[in-house]
Amino acid sequence: MKQYLLPAGAAAVVVLILFLLFSNKPPRISAFDERREKLMDSLQYPNASDLEAMHSDMLGSAGASRAALLRQLSDAWLTLGQPSIAADYLRQLADADPTYANYMQAGSAMRSLIDFEPDDNLRVNLVYGARYCYETAEKMQPGDLDAKIGLAAVLVSGSSQPMEGIMMLRELDAQYPDNVAVNLELGKFSVMSGQYDKAIERFAAVLQKDSLNLQARYMIAQSYLGTQDTITAVKQLEKLRSLTTDKTLIDQVDNEIHNLTH
């Protein structure tokens, strides 16, 4: 299974999550097809004709054949460094083969990209796609904790209903006070609202349960920076660096450590 969750420290934009005040009405035109067509026209991909042929075959197929082609298209676009397009193919795959697992995979892929996608139109489509996938998954398994957490996180970071998402997370926190995912999302919200001490408590709770959680490690470093505790922030970044072999993440962390210590 492809891993769609971007490295925790891949961009400091995690700390600057935007409250995007969008209408609740889904966009009529998918921005993913527009991006895909522009990239195909740019002639930067030598296998563009193969991708177009596969896309055409997918449109004319159904059932297991359609699902298999959608999976191949998703993998191909992810390899080309276009995760948003890849995630939308996963959403289409979930509709073609409607299982809880497929909707959760598509929702997680889209949710992980919301704060990293620089294109506003694509970001809107990622928000609605992720929300749709989580809501559909929760209908398939009513009361499912993972689907609820995913939906709440999308509402907080990408919709016009952030407080609805916060209330959902607080209710889940009351029921599952030690849940790693709930604490992580509430910690992110504390950072967004400038409540750095509370954020540190949340991320510390995550790390106590899962000391290898790179996202929590990165976010607790940012939270310490928010309290002007640069020394502890650097220590957390150094710990993070020792826990990963991802070159992109290591370079990012090295750059942040250098900026903080020189």
Keywords:
single chain, 262 residues, mainly alpha, 13 helices, disordered N terminus
Task: Please characterize this protein's 3D structure.
The chain is mainly α. The chain contains 13 helices and no strands. The protein has helices at residues 31-41, 48-59, 63-79, 83-96, 100-113, 120-140, 145-158, 162-175, 180-192, 196-209, 214-226, 230-242, 247-261. The longest helix is centred in the middle third of the chain and has 21 residues, at 120-140. It is globular, with a radius of gyration of 19 Å. The termini are far apart. The relative contact order is 0.11. Mean pLDDT is 87; it is low at 1-26.
Brief characterization of the structure:
This protein has 262 residues and is mostly helical.
Describe how the helices and strands are arranged.
Elements: H1 31-41, H2 48-59, H3 63-79, H4 83-96, H5 100-113, H6 120-140, H7 145-158, H8 162-175, H9 180-192, H10 196-209, H11 214-226, H12 230-242, H13 247-261
Helix pairs in contact: 2-3, 3-4, 4-5, 4-6, 5-6, 5-7, 6-7, 7-8, 7-9, 8-9, 9-10, 9-11, 10-11, 11-12, 12-13
